[in-house]
Amino acid sequence: MNEQKRRVVVKVGTSTLTHSSGSLDLRSMERLVRVLADLSGGGHEVILVTSGAIAVGTARMGLDERPRALRMKQAAAAVGQCRMMHIYDKLFSEYNCTVAQILLTGEDVEDPVRAEHLKNTFASLLELGIIPVVNENDSVSSAEIETGRHKVLGDNDTLSAIVAELCGAELLVLLSDIDGLYDADPKRDPGARLLHRVEALTPEILEMAGGAGTWRGTGGMTTKLSAAKIAMEAGCDMVITNGQRPEDLYGIVEGQDIGTRFAAGKGGAQ
User: Fold this and answer.
1) Residues 26-53: tens digit of each pLDDT
2) CB 25 within 8 A of CB 38
3) What b/e readout covers 235-264, taking b as 16+ CB neighbours within 10 angstroms?
4) Up-side HSE of residue 247: CA atoms within 13 Å toward CB?
5) How many angstroms separate the CA atoms of 239 and 224, rounded?
6) How far apart are CA 65 and CA 248, in angstroms?
7) CB of 50 within 8 A of CB of 137?
8) Which residues of the chain have pLDDT under 70?
9) What pLDDT shows up at residue 219?
């Protein structure tokens, strides 16, 4: 299995990319980039979906806390996205990798014509060995997300699953601040057990979803299970694992029991 080349989407959350202050965690980013560059060098096709623009922009703008006003969130996203891509480009270049930025809104994936262009863009980049770095275009799409009028994406867990579906990926990995899905809240129940494999999103599994994560991020287990549904229906396995151990990606790509794997079953992506 470990010789098989895969198309892999890796989503990294804000809590993995930043310190509690909101500033970029450069050591964490460098470790992740090194693994992704290595996987790409080994023949895998890698797509990175990254969060963190608003948090990074908040810190870069010298604000004490995440903005509450929509226009200030959008401004922070614009500043933060620029900063993050600069760092990603610098780090990936050190490993002789080229990256491309793709910013998406709900309309981009909903409209058939735009979605087809997007699919072709991803295909072209991957054929050239370029790693697409994807984020939601918060500077223009947040208004619709926050008012609920057009909530297609709204969080990067969902975004990464839609990207995986669009690209026909075989594997989606969500790097988060948790080790995976537990049968109880591990912060409250010391006997909570990590589930290594989920074959179906049963009512019991869905009940295990908790609330949102830290203030720096927006996604909790609920958004991750929503992403799992999209991925599994598209024939793509999804794994939730801890972003503090990016080296685990090697074993996950090989199919090892790391984190929680939501298995797509026999109707996998072609």
Assistant:
1) 999 999 999 999 999 999 999 999 988 9
2) no
3) bbbbbbbbbeebebbeebbeeeebbbbbeb
4) 0
5) 10
6) 32
7) no
8) 1-3, 141-154, 210-219, 266-270
9) 46
